[in-house]
Fold this sequence. Notes:
Largest interface: A-B, 24 and 20 residues
Distance between the termini of chain B: 52 Å
Number of helices of chain B: 2
Shape of chain B: elongated
Shape of chain A: globular
Order of helices and strands of chain A: HHHHHHHHHHEEHHH
Oligomer: heterodimer
CATH superfamily of the domain at 2-57 in chain B: Phenylacetic acid degradation B
CATH topology of the domain at 2-57 in chain B: Ubiquitin-like (UB roll)
Order of helices and strands of chain B: EEHEH
CATH architecture of the domain at 2-57 in chain B: Roll
Helix content of chain B: 10-25%
Largest sheet of chain A: 2 strands, antiparallel
Radius of gyration of chain A: 20 Å
CATH class of the domain at 2-57 in chain B: Alpha Beta
Strand order of the largest sheet of chain B: 2-1-3
Strand order of the largest sheet of chain A: 1-2
Strand content of chain A: under 5%
Helix content of chain A: 55-70%
Structural class of chain B: alpha+beta
Largest sheet of chain B: 3 strands, antiparallel
Number of strands of chain A: 2
Number of helices of chain A: 13
Bound molecules: fe (ii) ion
Amino acid sequence: MDFDALLAADARIEPRDRMPDGYRRTLIRQIAQHAHSEIIGMQPEGDWITRAPSLRRKAILLAKVQDEAGHGLYLYSAAETLGVDRADLLDLLHSGRQRYSSIFNYPALGWADVGTIGWLVDGAAIVNQVPICRCSYGPYARAMVRICKEESFHQRQGFELLLTLAHGTAGQRAMAQDAVDRWWWPSLMMFGPPDEESPNTAQSMAWGIKRHSNDELRQRFVDMTVPQAEVLGLTLPDRDLSFDGEHWRYGEIDWAEFRAVLRGDGPCNAERIARRRAAHDDGAWVREAADAYAAKGVA
Amino acid sequence: MLWEVFVRSRRGLSHVHAGSLHASDAAMALRNARDVYTRRNEGVSIWVVPAAEITASSPDEKEQFFDPAGDKVYRHPTFYELPAEVRHL
Lengths: 299, 89
Ligand SMILES: [Fe+2]
Ligand SMILES: [Fe+2]
């Protein structure tokens, strides 16, 4: 079967199948930027590993951040099945020619941010990623199945952490509310620009890469999250939030802020890339030593 | 160097392709495979194979390549019609 027949039958496209150049290019970019988001996403929370308030919380956070590294690796592997090299993709990230999710350009200012990131950021990521489990490209869909299984722990540990703080002292409660106030709007932006400003959506849908529009997924996330905030006893910073009998309608999103962060003018853009580059450069001697050892053939 | 990873999830099952990874040599590939693909007890045994060592059939020849099996319906038990009263067959 050729490409169009496979798509029409809702069958999966596999690495060695013939595929249009545009399909290949779109997937490489999307999977690579998804991979970049996973590994850059280790940074905001990574800062808190040494400052976790208990050994239990520290072990949980360490496992979560390690999972994100794993997610990056699954996705780089999926991208490589399309004929690109991981080293080149990292190069595109380091030189700013490929992006990562805008959300990771915000700082994690306090311990409550760790819980809020798990609840809202991983929560939004799950809503975005579940439909990709049915993506037309086999390796991407399979990576996503694995990732979604692991994400559920990320979101639950975050919710539990916030719930503990929300039931704690007045100070802890205030810390939790402050973190939610700062992360709510950036989380909604994770679904991308509104549908009328998302020109590539139609093509991605026709190719079976995307299954729902940005606004549909954003609405799904809001509908799931508002009742959860009530359980936490925390408020969401949107005065326009109201239930219309079917959906929770939300207020105006500040798209100027979204565009600024994408442009590189977010609070942490420069810091995130500098740290990623430093980690890569600092690890160069390890890669060289491992290759030299392998070349000696002693392994 | 790219390696393909196969994981046996439990005794009694075959190794199944889990994904790929980069490593300089086989020992490192095994360690990385453990960390990348079995962080939640997904495996009791791992194989790593250099990706370049795998010879694969080509999707372009798929039709002709798998053709010989296409017209041999008599290889399937359902091909044979038996009287309704015959049991355990
Ligand atoms: Fe992740
Ligand atoms: Fe996650």
